Write the structure tokens for this entry.
Amino acid sequence: SAVISQKPSRDICQRGTSLTIQCQVDSQVTMMFWYRQQPGQSLTLIATANQGSEATYESGFVIDKFPISRPNLTFSTLTVSNMSPEDSSIYLCSAWTGAGYTFGSGTRLTVV
Amino acid sequence: GENVEQHPSTLSVQEGDSAVIKCTYSDSASNYFPWYKQELGKGPQLIIDIRSNVGEKKDQRIAVTLNKTAKHFSLHITETQPEDSAVYFCAASYEGNQFYFGTGTSLTVIP
């Protein structure tokens, strides 16, 4: 099955700054997904990223706060903009690989 | 989007007993139902999945059942071991598209 490399694995950021998270898949995938997992909670879908088109955001998430890039079929980035302590979460990317959904190892973000 | 409900939120079982976790979904178009295990500090790991053309699937001590009419599916773990302790999530999707997670079940296996 496909392997997704996600980085950084963790970061501590100052409020008001932005962080870009990268995910690299070792094979070409059509759809990639970005999730947020707040402490002790389930995974919430932020957006779906298709190569060559604008990302599709779920209710409660907006492009200005979470801009996403999908420049090719193996790579995507999620930026968390103008961060506040409420953005402290684990962020995960995922991709449909034909046989199932594979996840990156996650980015643990702490905003201080 | 899809709404997935999961019960129970916490489950404690004695080692060797069985554990059952249940999920319901709302979108009748959903046709792919994976289960994930998440250990502390790690990303979700797929443990078993089922597609809508199958009613049951088994992999050693783990099995999943699906009732499309009732829109519910269940995870069954037999002969539980301490290493089964983790958080388990169900999910539902129209295969390859957005997929939505249940709220999670924290399973503790007591030695």
